[in-house]
Every structure is written in C-alpha cells, then in structure tokens.
TrEMBL record:
This is Ribosome maturation factor RimM. It comes from the Bacteria. The PRC barrel domain binds ribosomal protein uS19. One of its GO terms (biological process) is ribosomal small subunit biogenesis. Keywords: Chaperone, Cytoplasm, Ribosome biogenesis, rRNA processing. It is found in: Cytoplasm. Residues 111-183 form the Ribosome maturation factor RimM PRC barrel domain. InterPro entries: PRC_barrel-like_sf (IPR011033), PRC_RimM (IPR056792), RimM (IPR011961), RimM_N (IPR002676), RimM_N_sf (IPR036976), Transl_B-barrel_sf (IPR009000). The keyword Cell inner membrane does not apply. Belongs to the RimM family. It comes from Polynucleobacter cosmopolitanus. HAMAP family: Ribosome_mat_RimM. Pfam families: PRC_RimM, RimM. GO terms for molecular function: ribosome binding.
Amino acid sequence: MKSTATSSPSDLVLVGHVLDAQGIRGLVKIKPYSKEPLALFSAPLVWLSKPPALADLARPMVVKTAKEHSGQILLGLEDINDRDQALAIKGMAVYVSRADFPEEEDDSFYWVDLIGLSVINEQGQTLGLVVDLMDNGAQSILCVRLEGQKEDRLIPFIESVIKSVNKDANDPERQIVVDWQLDW
C-alpha cells in the first residue's frame, strides 16, 4: 500500500473504523463515529492504524470514492483493489486531518473543536473544561470537568443555555459562556 507521507499530521481526528469489506472490488465499509460524517466525504486522505495504536502511527491512504450506504460509508481506497485487500484492513481505526473537514455552517460546531475549551457562566465563574460530548437523542451535551473533581458536570448544548462559543485558537479568551449555575 502506498504511503504519501512519512509521519502523520498532528491534527488527526478519529472518525470511525473499518467494519468490513464490501463486494469484490476492494470497497471498505466504514462505521462512522458521527451521525453526519462529512469529513469522510471531503477528505482526500484517510489515515489508518490498528487499534490501540495512536494516530501518530497511522498510515495515509488516498480516497478514490466515498458514498453513504445503510448508515455506513463505503470508501474506495487507492491500492485496495479486491476483497482480500479490503479484509486485510478490517478493524483499523480511521482518522481524518482536521484541516480536511468541511467548513462549519453558522452556529454549528465540530465536537472535536469544543473539547478542551474552558466553560464559564455569565457571572464569570469557572465551571471547568470540556472533556467530552455526548448525544442523548434530543441534543448534544457538554461533559465539563473542574480540575480536581471526579464527576463531570453535564450541560445541554442548546441555544437557551449556550450564550457564546469562542473556539479561535489565536484568542486567549477561548471559552464557552453558559447560562448555568455552579450548584446545578
């Protein structure tokens, strides 16, 4: 399999894993970790590694085709031309460079960009850092942890609670401002 670079970019994001081969022409079925896996449709390269390998050990693969099929993504990858080659990468973790993600629409965010942001309330009190996000079906939920605490504070990521989001990496005021109290 061709490798187009010697090291992985530093901005790789885990977006899914190779579930299986599809057909006899080398298509691979990807189980995406997002309901809207737009990055898999726009990326010219995906990076593959065997779990639990880290992203920095992943190898690049050129994407020839990408399409949705029954909740999974079918990828055609350069140098994967038959079912046996596709089966050889079954189970591998799939990464995409964050730089290859499509631009977000107004008032929408990629979860990966929110992780690590400081969360404060409108009174200026620090609630913690975003350590994870989850989806309960009705909305996304920020999992916020205050340093030294074991329990996460769960804050709904909805318009009535989220007052502003500044994810600009060049701004020292990177944070999420919420209408949420310390004792909630």
